[in-house]
Amino acid sequence: MADEQKQMAWEKDRIFVRGLTSSQYSIAGYRKWMKEHPRVRHWEDVPWSGGPAVFHKMEILTPSTMPGQTVYMHVEELAPGGVGYTHAHQNEALLYILEGHGHDLHDGQRYDWQAGDVMVVHHNCTHQHINDDPEKPARVLIIKSKPLFNFLNLVEQTKLSEETPPAKAGHRPGEQFDSCESADLRFEI
């Protein structure tokens, strides 16, 4: 009996993408949802997470927080002397350096960066973010097409090392930036 139930479950139609005319999802319903969600996300409304070497404001722009289905945006703050974990993911990422200076390692190659620079992390590149300043944090805006890659089931992401403790112990995110003074982080779409 159990084998029959398993076989029956596999034979049932499965939905991977909902049809636009189904009762669960419609163009009109999506447009209504878009109009009801805010177009501006305030910096202070997004909590910090992570630590002790790398902190994140992860929910700045996601398909669940704002009307946008293909872009994901978050801010990463590297504590003074902070070193992020080595990782790789299938989606590309654009990094805009808001504050500080440091370097990345991309497949073993060093790339130095400072405030105002834009860096590309190519897909499937093994990389690591490093703050070279032992006294001040570095802040990076990261924009990627992760939701689109997830939709296409290209979800491979690998953590290859653990982050290391920051050189300056006890760093709290945002402590040297009361608000984001380097850029207006009230994002409008």
Brief overview:
The protein is of the alpha+beta class and 189 residues long. Helix content is 14%, strand content 33%.
Can you walk through the features of this model?
- The protein is of the alpha+beta class and 189 residues long.
- It has a domain at 41-168: Jelly Rolls (Sandwich).
- It is 14% helix and 33% strand.
- The protein has three helices and 13 strands, in the order ααβββββββββββαββ.
- The strands form four sheets. It has a six-stranded antiparallel β-sheet with strand order 2-3-4-11-6-9, with no helix packed on it.
- β2 (49-50) and β3 form a beta hairpin.
- The protein starts with a helix and ends with a strand.
Q: Which labels suit this protein?
A:
3 helices; alpha+beta; 3-stranded antiparallel beta sheet; disordered C terminus; 189 residues; 33% strand
